[in-house]
Amino acid sequence: MYKLTIALLTLLAAAPLVAQHRIDFLIDAEGARRTGHNESFTPGTRFDPQFGTGGGAGAGLNFFLSDRVSVELKAAALESRLRVRIVGTDFIATSDLGRAQIFPISAVLQWHLSEHGTIRPYLGAGVAHVILRDVNRSVSPSAAGIHFKDPTGLVIDGGLEFNLSKRFGIYGDARYIPVETKSTATFVPTTSAVQMNVRPLIVSGGIAWRF
Fold first, then answer.
1. Domain segments of the chain as ranges
2. Mean pLDDT of the chain
3. Euclidean distance between CA atoms 112 and 50, whole angstroms
4. Which of 35, 83, 28, 82 is nearest to 56 (CA)?
5. Cis amide linkage into residue 189, ω under 30° from 0
6. 0.85 cut: is pTM over it?
7. How confident is the model over 18-45, as pLDDT tens digits?
8. In whole angstroms, what is the distance from residue 128 CA to residue 1 CA?
9. CATH no. of 2-210
């Protein structure tokens, strides 16, 4: 699955180099919410990471191959409150680790339902790679940090584009990674680990500049 998604990501990224109708530069504000859950805990002390709703900013390029078809390449920097619930044989505790840093990178093939007009809805699908930055803060007396394995998976996209002029527009966008996009969190230097279904929902609104 990993090799397949990397191949699809490379193919989508190379498509704009073949032909392009126009290019939109995108910049936006984003909000993110994790909809998955944790599973497959290792025996012993249980570490249960929990991500709160977060946000940040994103930027990208949308290469229009025609009036209806485009390839969007986008990256974002997001922050989310990270807490870890620690469950032992005779105790339960919660450790607040502050802000976790999340960097989603996506390549999406989009279909625009209308060629022209002030309001243009679109749908899309592609691949996304989510980078979860490792945490180097103490979780408990036995765990000094968290190492994440970054997940890759299918992304589904939809939104509305509002054309303000020939050069500028605004847009609202929602993208979701619905498949079993899994990440492994290992609590170093212990052998404790947990498998997480990430499944992020990312909603954004921003400005498009055409050139």
1. 2-210
2. 82
3. 36
4. 28
5. yes
6. no
7. 556 789 999 999 999 887 777 666 666 7
8. 13
9. 2.40.160.20
